[in-house]
TrEMBL record:
Domain DUF7041: 4-87
Pfam family, one: DUF7041
Protein name: DUF7041 domain-containing protein
Protein source organism: Araneus ventricosus
InterPro entries documented for this protein: DUF7041 (IPR055469)
Length: 202
């Protein structure tokens, strides 16, 4: 029997991937069976968002139609993902490598490694930044190094110096985008300086 996990609003695509793995191991291939498994398992509050499909399912591709609609409804827009990447994610109690993976997921293919590195470093403690910026390793190796530094300094007074910039509630979408563009420009200057520093050490 398929054990359907609770619907994951924050990442419906991953939720469907989990579910489809169970379909494979359970030998479920029929479209209607997949569709009814979702309908029978997902909370009513979620299904209310797709009531038109539930009350009048299409004759073909019922599961695919339901899946695509739920992913579209609950997935963040491009602008929202960019805003999260630039402003909302913080180190908190996470390990540096966990933070990096979260940021990579938000960035997708839209942000280059240099910009992502700069954004990630800004969320780390100042002392850790000072150590990592002297290394020319790639992001994954830097995240491993950051975890080791965090393990060594655990319990010390090192704390994150990241200050979250909030967009005023009264801002318009245009203001929000302009604000994000200004931050990207500022980060690009920092990246240029960092790249020059790395080349001088090469």
């Amino acid at each position: 029997a398929v054990k359907v996990p609770p619907f994951w609003r924050e990442n419906p695509a991953i939720w469907f991937s989990q579910l489809e793995s169970q379909f494979v191991t359970s030998g479920i291939v029929q479209d209607s069976t997949k569709y009814h498994t979702v309908v029978a398992s997902v909370e009513t509050e979620i299904l209310s968002q797709v009531s038109d499909i539930i009350t009048s399912p299409p004759n073909n591709d019922m599961y695919k139609t339901l899946k695509e609609r739920l992913i579209n409804i609950f997935s963040d827009s491009e602008e929202r993902r960019l805003k999260k990447l630039l402003q909302d994610v913080e180190l908190g109690d996470k390990r540096p490598s966990t933070l990096l993976r979260e940021m990579q997921d938000l960035a997708g293919n839209r942000v280059g490694d240099e910009l992502l590195l700069s954004l990630w470093l800004q969320r780390l403690p100042t002392q850790m930044q000072a150590i990592l910026t002297t290394s020319s390793d790639d992001l994954n190796k830097l995240s491993i190094m950051a975890d080791k530094i965090a393990d060594v300094t655990s319990g010390s007074e090192i704390c994150s110096n990241h200050v979250k910039t909030k967009v005023p509630e009264t801002s318009t979408p245009y203001d929000c985008i302009s604000n994000l563009q200004a931050q990207i420009s500022e980060l690009s200057l920092k990246i240029d300086r960092m790249s020059q520093f790395r080349r001088s050490r090469a």
